[in-house]
Amino acid sequence: MKVYLDSIGCRLNQSEIERYARQFLAAGHQLVGVMEEAELMVLNSCTVTAAAASDSRQKIRQANKAGVDRIVVTGCMSTLRPKQTAQMPGVIQVVPNSQKDNLVADFLGIPPGEIEFETVARQAVPGSRLKTRAFIKVQDGCDNRCSFCITTLARGSSRSRTVDQVLADIAAARSGGVQEVVLTGVHMGAWGRDFKEAQHLYHLIENILEHRDIPRLRISSLEPWDLESDFFNLWQDRRLCRHLHLPLQSGCAATLQRMARNTTPQDYAALVQFARDRIPEVAITTDIIVGFPGESEEEFEETLAFVEKMQFAGAHIFTYSARPGTPAAKLPDQVHNYTRKQRNAALRQLGEHSKSSFYQQFIGKTLDVLWESAESAEGDHWHLTGLSDNYLRVSAISDQNLWNQITPAHLTGWNEGVLQGEILHSGVKIDMKNALQK
User: Fold this and answer.
1) Whole-structure pTM value
2) Which of 79, 99, 126 finishes a domain?
3) Does a structural domain hold residue 402?
4) Which residues have C-beta within 8 Å of that of residue 47, sequence separation ≥ 6?
5) pLDDT, tens digit, for every residue of 143-165?
6) In which order are the strands placed within the sheet that holds 2-7?
């Protein structure tokens, strides 16, 4: 059977799709990279925002229009809107999050545990752009009660995967040639709290660095209140990427209180400063919601001022989207859509300026880059793009196809959101752009 796999939304969804890929391969089925070739589509859906829910529905319609008449939908949309999802064209099965771990086995009619996929090397899901990185699920669910978030309803309480399970997935990724592993979960900082003998995320990362030879280990989103000073000692191992994604959501204390966030701007700023002191050249990125109920012009100005002060390396700016079932949806003083969009644009502009400033401080320096794409260029050369460990997008020209390799690049300029680099061979700069012009 030819299977097309896709996901909408978070990195956790991508991690789960990659796990399905290994299971289908172990059961003898084929993965395809285009809908038109598929006999079955599995979609890991999202409904965290109205836009994500719309994208999920659109993906189902696209697949059905492409001729896929057997579609299995799992994820948050299938959990929160099962009847509506089941009525969509081509959908033959809706699998809630509580049952998604056994999705492949249940669909194929194989008893759980009898698909021997643990020894199957990780392969990039066909059509995926993230072939050089593997997302490894370490935890699911969330015990926080942020007033705007639907995830707790969709994924339930926090549940941790064991160290051995995580190490096994990383081994499979490594055997598939992956150079970078990204640890992901809904509430990463809660990892280990539900064990009989409670542990901290620190212990999981320590085990990975000790027992696996992965060249790069990246951590996805972490709530700022979960981090203690000892946590930053882990970065003494240079394989741990110098990138922290710390969701802020608002730079105004009053707004954060209505959001039921367990932090304040002052505490957040202190944590960021501590991280920057302990991890040289660390990239701090964040999430921010604009137009939250009750957000006055003065409160929004507080957020603008705070974001400017933080000088983030990047920011995801979300326009508040009321999700049915969340406390925030019932709050008074909902902000007008026009105002939300205006604030989004203003904050996005500030975020891009901050990102540009962070990137440009690295011009003239040399960083190791994992080359994630390689396209043929003039004269048997290659146009490469990739990421440094501190999440800088870099572009370069090379006389070799260096896809999925980590090499040093001397950074020479900045153009449209990307740093320009020159490949270093044995410590010598090779200016391939000038070579091509000659």
Assistant:
1) 0.89
2) 126
3) yes
4) 53, 56, 75, 76, 77, 80, 81, 150, 154, 323
5) 999 999 988 889 999 999 999 99
6) 30-31, 2-7, 40-45, 71-75, 91-95
Amino acid identity at 268: Y
Query: What CATH number is given to the structural domain containing 71?
Result: 3.40.50.12160
Burial readout 113-129 (b: 16 or more C-beta within 10 A, e: otherwise): eebebeebebbbbbebe
Residue 203 has pLDDT above 80, yes or no: yes
What is the per-residue pLDDT across 358-377, written as a single tens digit (0 to 9) for each? 999 999 999 999 999 999 88
Domain end position, chosen among 126, 156, 180: 126
Residue 81, in any domain of the structure: yes
Q: Which of 259, 266, 207 is nearest to 237 (CA)?
A: 207
Number of domains in the chain: 2
- Residue 11, domain member (yes or no): yes
The helix (run of H) or strand (run of E) holding residue 206 is helix 201-211
- Dump strand ranges (E) for 162-321: 180-184, 216-219, 243-245, 283-290, 314-319
Identify the domain containing residue 414 by its residue range: 366-437
Residue 224 has pLDDT above 90, yes or no: yes
pLDDT confidence of residue 424: 86
Element (H, E) at 378: none
**What is the signed CA dihedral for 202, 205, 207, 213, rounded to 10 degrees?**
-160
pLDDT value for 229: 87
CA angle 126, 128, 129 (to 5 degrees): 140
Q: Does 122 reside within a domain?
A: yes
**26 vs 253, which has greater pLDDT?**
253
